[in-house]
Amino acid sequence: MNNSDLNQLVGTRYPRFGPIDSQTISGGEITISPGRHYVEVVVEGGTGNGADNLDTVNGCNEGDVLVLCPATSGVADTVTARDGIGNLSLAGNFAMDHVDDRLTLLRTAAGWVELSRSGNA
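Now predict its structure.
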């Protein structure tokens, strides 16, 4: 495999998440902007205004991968992704209370399926 082949493979087979985007929960939902796959989630009302639940993620296309993290650390800003409430199919609820926590999802026709989670508090 030459460098050209390798560059083509990396460019088409491995996701590039790009710069982090910021989305604020509204009514349990966030909407992902086109081309954004790495998103920090802000609790409704902004930082320090209480924990919040994330039930639905809108946007993206089937087959897209999305990485979510909370915008800030602390119990007051905990984002809990909830299994089976909206369009999230998770291995149970996941409370993200540290900026290093991550939830990785795959978009399907029915919604989002959890690929992995990482609690790094």
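The longest strand covers residues 112-118.
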